[in-house]
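Human
Can I borrow your eye for a moment on a structure tokenisation matter? Give me a protein, with the fold worked out from its sequence. Write it directly below this note and I will take it from there.

Assistant
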Amino acid sequence: MKKILALVMFLLLGATACNPVIVGDSIADMTRAEFSQAMPLSLTDASPGRGAYNGGWGGQPRTGLEAIKHNIQFVDDGGWMIVELGSNNMDWAYGAKTTFVAQVVAAVPDDICLGWVVPYSDYYGTDFRWAEAIYQEIQAQPCWDVIRWDLAVQFDPSLTYDWVHPSQKGKEVLAFLIEQTVEGCGC
């Protein structure tokens, strides 16, 4: 269904460029240089806040949710907001994860596509609660995609160098996965 909606948006909007915006933590920030030069990109590093709600750790104390709300204005209609948050919140209960995803979905207008990178952390073993929470809530967005970084790392552990942060190969794979998602809206 999401691919059909993306195709309809592509056909309605044409092949005009859109500007995908990524709000992420250190994982997305480390991957910044790997994105194709052909893809216009805005990336906000929310890692000074270290996660979904908590601000601090130096720099601008904007939380992940605040960064998403702030950066919506920079996404073109039919463009993509990519969220790469959750690695610093792996210990949350399932209900807290679904609440956060629902708050993000509520903040993103229906004319903007929402992509979410499922976090991975070997510190918590095989934990699919983030993926379940994302799938449960993101479907309320008309155009969406879930980027399964967690499964990529489980399949190939060499994609991280410390069980959390991407290795050089991991940066290339994560950038590729995100670029494949945003291509669906004509970016």
